[in-house]
Structure prediction request, 106 residues.
Amino acid sequence: MTTESLNRKNTLISIEEAASSGIKRLKKPIWQSKYAHIELEIFDKVLGAWIKFYDPSNKMINGRDPVELSCLTLELSARAWEPYEGPAGGSKEYKLEQEKLKSLTL
Prediction:
């Protein structure tokens, strides 16, 4: 492992840690789309039952965006996530990316 990958690994957090810290939006650093992210439901720093997965390609692939996932389908304690600070799903920039992807598939 390189020093950079070790440093990055030390900054990764779990979904449980994010929820207890009040961090609602996360992404996996390996995801190709810079817009892909999950949004947690947090109630009094406790993770709710559902997680919303946003990705501009969701609408074409799944017919809706975001896609709701049960928190039981993910490893909640795995330190594989980093805070997402990009545009929210539904923002102008996000919608432009959806349109760009849609035009590529027609």
In short: The chain has one domain: 3-105.
